[in-house]
Amino acid sequence: MATKRDIHPDFLFLLELKEARLCSLFKDLRAYILEISPNSNELLYHTHALTAVFSISDKLSDAFCMIPIYTSHLNLGFNKGTLLHDPHQLLTGTGNLIRHIPVAATTDYRNKKVNDLIKSSVDFAIKDMEKPTKSIGQTISKIKSPK
């Protein structure tokens, strides 16, 4: 059984400034991703969105999915979504690579179709990775401390 991974304090500080509904969805979606891929690294950013990126290494280029939190919504994003096999056409978006699933409720992602898509994205990232990583199951904050 995977050990619970705490949310980084700098990320949590910014997360708690969001609506309670978004915080709750984020925490559950994050836990779901970490259940599926417990050894993934979590890269944290605060740019146009507060974002947790899940990667098989310590590099953004090896990421398989992400959770960007905007002002009033969040998504389950797939960094190389246009390259993934998406038989149920779950992914939306118009970018060159990134696709996402809009998240308004836990039922939007806690299902077999999304579970399979996340696993497929992890497998794709492993095959696409240039070299193995020494970082496993780490949280790496790229956020400048707001305190």
From TrEMBL:
Protein name: YdhG-like domain-containing protein
Lineage of the organism: Bacteria, Pseudomonadati, Bacteroidota, Chitinophagia, Chitinophagales
